């Protein structure tokens, strides 16, 4: 077990002494790059130091790029000559984003320290994050979803501050950035159109399509275009509804739902309508979850874990490609 060097009688906080000691051991090669470190609990018990103190020292070492953490595996010493520092900036936190983050880190294994920040769809917040972090990271992994109606030129100018060979776009491509960059993206309009077209055997019994797309939603507007194109090509009427609770449930309608809350409200309305789900009324929801599988709800979804893994591999291999992420419709009883 690793024996930590510290003196409890010094005025310097113990966590700082431990941090400095471990940095020296890493710098001088006593702790080899890629070697696994003891867990916080094990190190705390073996050295009779509080869990909080060890945890604080590890956090500082991780922040400075001396060690990295991989979910389910633990802490590892970074190779000082090539341990990548990566900033991932997402639009929001959600269960789907966690799949991306952890699969991205897993693909990189022990090769990188990944810091996570959220821009909340706000171009000004995004600009602040980038201005504060420029020059501090080897790669910037960005999810470029912003408020509908956001000033495109404003956020494109921020993207242009990032060297193109250090930029990777997640989930959405920006063709306006015509440099040779990395991207793992969805083609929202074509993906939705193709997914619905692939389910025409089930959708042919419905004459009307309704996309429940809240007015405050920041989902890509291309989703609307894809659903509208499908309905037009297949002779169905189409409209957009901003919330499920205001809907009149009529036989022969299929609904596409983007938000979980609207899905719950819609299922409640169908239940009290006495119409049969999957025969009289159809429902398709965005993004797969275990609950939707249990409820037998048809979903259209991208492969979030694949997106993270592909992004990690692009960086590891320095492969400057734009790659479309897999997208599929999972047919279930709700259609």
UniProtKB/TrEMBL annotation:
<protein>
    <submittedName>
        <fullName>GntR family transcriptional regulator</fullName>
    </submittedName>
</protein>
<keyword id="KW-0804">Transcription</keyword>
<dbReference type="InterPro" id="IPR036390">
    <property type="entry name" value="WH_DNA-bd_sf"/>
</dbReference>
<feature type="domain" description="HTH gntR-type">
    <location>
        <begin position="12"/>
        <end position="80"/>
    </location>
</feature>
<dbReference type="GO" id="GO:0003677">
    <property type="term" value="F:DNA binding"/>
</dbReference>
<dbReference type="InterPro" id="IPR000524">
    <property type="entry name" value="Tscrpt_reg_HTH_GntR"/>
</dbReference>
<dbReference type="Pfam" id="PF00392">
    <property type="entry name" value="GntR"/>
</dbReference>
<dbReference type="InterPro" id="IPR036388">
    <property type="entry name" value="WH-like_DNA-bd_sf"/>
</dbReference>
<dbReference type="GO" id="GO:0003700">
    <property type="term" value="F:DNA-binding transcription factor activity"/>
</dbReference>
<keyword id="KW-0805">Transcription regulation</keyword>
<keyword id="KW-0238">DNA-binding</keyword>
<dbReference type="InterPro" id="IPR028082">
    <property type="entry name" value="Peripla_BP_I"/>
</dbReference>
